[in-house]
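Thanks for the sequence, V.! I ran Serine hydrolase family protein right away. Repeating your input here for the record:
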Amino acid sequence: MKTVYIIHGYNASSNDYWFPWLKQQVEAIGHQCEIIHFDDSQHPEYGLWKHNLAEQIQSLNENVVIIAHSLGCLASLGFLSEALQGSKLFALFLIAGFNRRLPTLPELNQFIDQVSVNDASLRLSFEHRFLFFSNNDPFVPAPFSIQLGHLMNAQMVEVKNAGHFMASDGFSEFPQLWDKLSVLLKSAP
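Predicted structure:
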């Protein structure tokens, strides 16, 4: 059985967007799923988010799938760069990910500047790596996500006109993500 961790981003909660729907899909085929809760997502602090991740992710092993959205991608990559220490994980899904300052959200600069990502180590740590991006994301320009995808050597999936993959963009469900994730979970021993 795999354990899927869903990690939300800035100004979001565990009940937002497609997170509860995806949890239901994962559990319906017999796997575990936890949605990480970050304290004060309206005023993110990297140290606090890293602490939240360490408290809520029970184990890091070959049965773990990490699915992160937006700022949650960067927080997860920073946390995993320190926490993995040679451990192997099953899969990584980055949704609207980025690893540099966003011109549209300067209030996140301090958070972004504190995160150190060991991409070389992380590429070796995940058996499967995916990055989803949209051609019309108002917060994370597609080239920023593509750059992170190349850095992580991830399979990149463009979802046209998906905005920032939020409910206001029509994403209370995320079938494109489920298509990729379900194949991995169903084929897993």
